Amino acid sequence: MINVIPVSRNTNQLTFEGRYPNKVFSDVRDIPNLPCAKCGQKMLVRMEDQNFLTKIRPVLKTCLKKLKKFQKVKGYKILEQLANKYPKDNIDKILQKEEEKEQTNLLSPKLVNEVRAITYNAPFVIKKLGKYRKYMDSTALELFDILSVYAEKYPKMTFNEILSKSEIFNFHKEAVLLEKAALEVKAQRIFDKMSILTSKKHSPQNSDNSIQETLTIANCEVLRIIKNNTNDDGRDLLLEQVYKNVLADIQNPKDVEKFKNLIKSLPKSSSNPHRIIVNTVQNESPHGIIYHLMNKINTFEHIKPKSQKGENGKHNGIYLCSDCNNKRGTTPYSEEFTMFPDFAKNTQKQASIVMRYILRGKLTGYDYYPQEVKKTLYEESGHIFKLDIKKYLKEQIKKYTDSLNKTRERFQKSREDVNNNKKELTKLQQKQKILKRKNKKNYEDLKKQKNKLEEIKQILKDDNNFGEDSTRVLE
Ligand SMILES: [Zn+2]
Predict the structure, then answer these.
(1) Is the predicted pLDDT of residue 8 greater than 60, yes or no?
(2) DSSP-assigned letters across all residues of 420-470
(3) Selection from 7-16, 64-73, 207-216 with the highest mean pLDDT
(4) Helices (DSSP H) in 284-368: which residue ranges?
(5) What is the Å distance from ligand 1's center to 41 Cα?
(6) How far away, in angstroms, is 319 Cα from ligand 1 center?
(7) Number of CB atoms found within 10 A of residue 306's CB
(8) pLDDT(443) > 60
(9) Half-sphere exposure (CA, 13 Å, Cβ side) for 8?
(10) What average pLDDT is seen over the chain?
């Protein structure tokens, strides 16, 4: 939602425009609060995420106190030297320093991860995280609330330490187990219906048990998927794949449809804070919990996947939050748009905002993006999805026509100037001709007079010589 404020206050006529930042962007990933093209949630710009992660890490010196057990590890000495050299910086800031690249490149990634896992105490992190609440989905918000409670209960500890406490870890683990058990009960009811559907049409004398066996094997695999997969993307298609052999054995097309509907009615496991906590502690270092709250970072999504020679250019990209992008995989857009009706809607919503930024001059280098990305989306969606860019093109035409008219006016004005100058020039040239003629005449006069002067001088000289000679003669 864009806040509207009246602009052009000095006129009586009010025009309403979105509140655009003063900055002009050169990358869509820097536009604040842009909705994700898939889930439609507001996204964090890249820098905000970077800044945040830098802020929740204490200075390197403090971290090293907690890493005493790594004292013998190669690279610890380097860290100590760096900590002394930069007593006010944390590991992220130090790693960014160009002048220390030679040193920091020698550090083992494992050691660097250990240092980066150290955050400030829980209450400080919660305080900093509060600012990003608007970027959290419902699960992240639930997780945030749980973490807030822990921060209050253990104010002197980091989340790394809190979540690793056995009583806390076990509590969440139990919650996950209970959820999985409930899922299994629900799934079992559907499995029973499937069993009845596949057996009733078979005559007893046929006593074909093979289909029941195939069904049982498939059910085990399906149960495993349901329990562990919190990702909805393409789930029903995946499950249909598992039941492929069962479906092939069903004779009546109506029963095939019924069976497919049963697949769809299988329970889904939801992504919930307990699962996130357990997975984080089990699979990553517990600081990773922060990333689950910061999973709405604006990322570039290749419409035509890289693996299928999709290019990196703007024309091949829309923008997804890191969460959606991580889940997407390489499902073709033709399927994506069918499976998620909101995807098309949100892609249009995002593109419309981007187009407004281009038209307002707030995004440079993207003038051809709308028509190019429209083409890519149309091709990759199997000619289903047509991005609406009419309004953009109309405004672009208007903008260029206006600027063309202005240029034309300027051209006419300068042409007049040239003509006026030409006239002026002709006059000056004529004037110069006259002046030149005058000048020539003056020069000739000068020459004549000079000659005359020389002549007279010569006469005087001759005359003088004549006098001298005559005197000498007279002597
Ligand atoms: Zn998203």
Answers:
(1) no
(2) HHHHHHHHHHHHHHHHHHHHHHHHHHHHHHHHHHHHHHHHHHHHHHHHHHH
(3) 64-73
(4) 289-293, 322-328, 333-339, 341-359
(5) 6
(6) 9
(7) 11
(8) yes
(9) 7
(10) 86
Tell me, in angstroms, the distance from the centre of ligand 1 to residue 130's CA.
20
CA atoms 312, 314, 320, 321: torsion sign: positive
Helix, strand, or coil here: 326? helix
Q: Separation of 343 CA from ligand 1 center, angstroms?
A: 9
Mean pLDDT along residues 302-324? 89
Give the pLDDT mean for 154-165: 91
- Lowest model confidence (mean pLDDT) among 5-9, 96-100, 226-230: 5-9
Q: In which band, very low, low, confident or very high, does the pLDDT at 203 lie, cut at 50, 70 and 90?
A: very low
d(CA 276, CA 414): 69
Q: Which residues pair with 363 in a beta bridge?
A: 25
Q: What pTM did the predictor assign?
A: 0.66
DSSP state of 270: P
* Dist. CA 113–CA 63, nearest whole Å: 12
Calculate how far, in angstroms, residue 274's C-alpha sits from the geometric centre of ligand 1: 21
CA of 25 to the centre of ligand 1 (A): 21
